[in-house]
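This week, study the protein below.
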Amino acid sequence: MKNLAITLVELPPTSFGRLDGEPAEDVFCYFKFPARAIPLLHAILLREGFTNVVSINPSFNVPPGRLTAADIERITGSDFLLISAISRTIPQSRELGLLYKKLNPKGTVITGGSHATSRPEECLEWADVVVRQEGDKTLPRLMTALLRNGVPDGAGGISYKKGSGIVHESPVEPLTETELSNLPAPRYDDGTKKEVWVWPLSTSRGCPYRCDFCSVS
């Protein structure tokens, strides 16, 4: 069953948070940096033996930020849609998740990121499963549980709906130095490889400081 279609998406910021809206204009939009969560999770899924995996980053589409017809076809035809989002991209991610469920009611929406970690109940209004904090260890276990049992129970580090309530499983320990070093090289999509000029190298996670206004730590 590891040939089931898995599509990973990270949407760019847009005006008013609309799916396929005009790209947001701010200082961050002037730097062409690739997404870092989705390419790494893509590589991890490939290492775990999943064969039908596609990443979509519409930031480098034409026009920029817009999903193409081929993107929509792939997304809505996938068995699993994995969405990585930050707070400023949650509205369009929610819109995409609801569109996917409308066109593919049997499909599964999984979301993660800093916003989903801090507000899992909100994200479960449109997603089936929330991956909290780091997903490197959680995602393979989650996919295995879903394929074996059809339910996410026991993956750890996740939140999901069960009956009329919500289950918050215990957090997963952060990656150790050895585990971080053993992560595979990120798998970048062709559009990203064509457009990005400077490639980041991640040597650590988070931040050693714990400022009240920031969740990076």
Notes: The chain has a mean pLDDT of 92. Residues 14 and 21 are 5 Å apart (CA to CA).
